[in-house]
């Protein structure tokens, strides 16, 4: 079976949450027997290494080279729904649809959905929203952050939803929001990744390693700033823990002169997590789904997180539901650091992830049925 996927961002490397989302869904579809026609819309730069990685991963890759002037804003306070759309994407998708028997069409992001209007009747059209963009700037301001990236109005976002047969919301609260904007069917499909529970670090250590891996966006910078501020009030914690920072956020101004070991960009998130005893996600505000929370749970690591970091990921555990960063730091302070305690925290993460993963798999089974011929060939 063939699926046509468009994305304004590259799928490689997976050093940002949105890239991880695009990659994991396409990889999951491959595992279910689908051949991927991946159209990269050229909104970001693309190195030779990135292009090679994508071509080695997906069955068919089509690339729009990055262009100047793509990110326009037609209104003073907001974008129109197609302000960031690249018309060349429509030209490429039209050629693919004429050449190949495409079984499903999948557009990533509401503001990159224009081509769905031209898909012939009878081919299911899905729109993976990633986030809510109507009034996004207002929500960021309310959370104490300056607006950035794309934002639009409810009326404009509704135009995009109507282009699809089914809208994919990344978490349930956003599904409810989209259902109010349009009559288009809405399903919740979170971040599905296979469980990869890592063993506890085997090297005895006097101090437990506490890790935070994040990309360099304003929301993560704000979270790191709050974390550093709260940790500075508890200097004795540095006698019990070492704080480890990884990802592009290490290059931000917020990361300068802080008492963290900075790893910078890491080729393998798994390798970083494998060395950590405890993972933090101090996220505050924002929308969408916090992919790094899902990843930490998927690796089975002890996780301390704020409530905002776990929106869309049901958990009965208080250590996943801190009201703010101060509460998170106080929970860290209260830990005794014993093997029994960290094992219990890891078990909690695995329990939460197992339930979350099953919910996503059930939705995948409904939306993208297994290719029976492929499945029979794979399993004999």
Plain-language structure description:
The protein has helices at residues 17-31, 48-57, 87-99, 136-142, 154-161, 172-181, 218-232, 269-275, 291-298, 325-334, 339-367, 372-379; strands at 2-7, 35-40, 60-63, 104-108, 125-128, 166-169, 185-188, 208-213, 241-246, 261-264, 278-281, 303-305. Helix 9 packs across helix 11 (339-367). It folds into two domains: 2-189, Glycogen Phosphorylase B (Rossmann fold), CATH 3.40.50.2000; 208-357, Rossmann fold, CATH 3.40.50. Helix 9 (291-298) links the parallel strand 11 and strand 12. It has 380 residues and is α/β, with parallel strands linked by helices. The chain starts with a strand and ends with a helix.
List keywords for this structure.
single chain; 380 residues; alpha/beta; Rossmann fold; 2 domains; seven-stranded parallel sheet; five-stranded parallel sheet; 12 strands; 15% strand; globular
Summarize the structure in short.
The chain is an alpha/beta fold and 380 residues long. The chain is built from 12 helices and 12 strands. The chain folds into 2 domains: 188 residues, Glycogen Phosphorylase B (Rossmann fold, 3-Layer(aba) Sandwich), CATH 3.40.50.2000; 150 residues, Glycogen Phosphorylase B (Rossmann fold).
